[in-house]
Amino acid sequence: ARWLTARHGVSVDERQVIIVAGLQQAHSLVAQALLSPGMTVALEDPCYIGKRLLYEKLGLHILNLPVDEKGVKLSGATFDNVRLICVNPGCQVPTNASLSLPRRRKLVTLAAQPQTPIFEESMFDLLMLEGKSTPSLLSLSGGKNVIHAGLFAPALGGGMMLGYMVVPWPLLP
Predict the structure, then answer these.
(1) Cα–Cα distance between 19 and 151 in angstroms, integer?
(2) 116 exposed, middle or buried (CB, 10 Å; 0-12, 13-18, 19+)?
(3) CA 163 from chain center: how many Å?
């Protein structure tokens, strides 16, 4: 929890951290805890097919968010009827696009108005590159309204399908 607090600049309590067997399990847990059939989830388009199939199998409607070289396109987007927004801002799969800082800020603002939780995938959170990294959605939100999920695999080896979620206090129950 201390590393997450230092990395994201928000207070993370160890009771907010849930260990998972990869991002797919994290999506499954969040979907089953927060969503019901017929609700709408926003997914990047394109995105990892396993994630899309999971939400479809659970009977959810999908709002496709197109992706370009700067990440998710948000012009004209509203999330009034969306119950969860799923994005991978650091290294979008399969495009490898990184969500620009202005779009990250806009996404956090758009999601806060109807209080739609954001599920932020962070596959390379444990790797530090030279220079300062772009702030995470967890950081930009001040720890509110963002479920931040990361993997240990990039730091420990590709076969290690182990990860974590940081869940905001209001969503933990």
Answers:
(1) 10
(2) buried
(3) 13
Structure token digits, residue 148: 């931040």
> Residue 93: which of 27, 5, 7, 138 has the closest Cα?
27
Please, what is the Cα angle at 87 between 33 and 91, to 5 degrees?
135
**Residue reference for tokens 């987007």:** 77
- CA 155, 139, 69, 113 torsion: positive or negative? positive
Taking only the tens place, the pLDDT of each residue in 86-127 is: 999 988 889 999 999 999 999 999 999 888 999 999 876 555
pLDDT digits (tens, 9 = 90+) for 53-92: 999 999 999 999 999 999 999 998 889 999 999 999 988 8
d(CA 81, CA 63): 10
Rg of the chain on CA atoms, in Å: 15
* pTM to 2 decimal places: 0.91
CA atoms within a 13 Å half-sphere pointing along the CA-CB vector of 140 = 22
Q: What is the C-alpha to C-alpha distance for residues 114 and 172, in angstroms, rounded to an integer?
A: 19
Cβ proximity of 86 and 44 under 8 Å: yes
How far apart CA 145 and CA 141 sit, in angstroms, is: 7
Please give the Cα distance from 145 to 161 (Å, whole number): 26
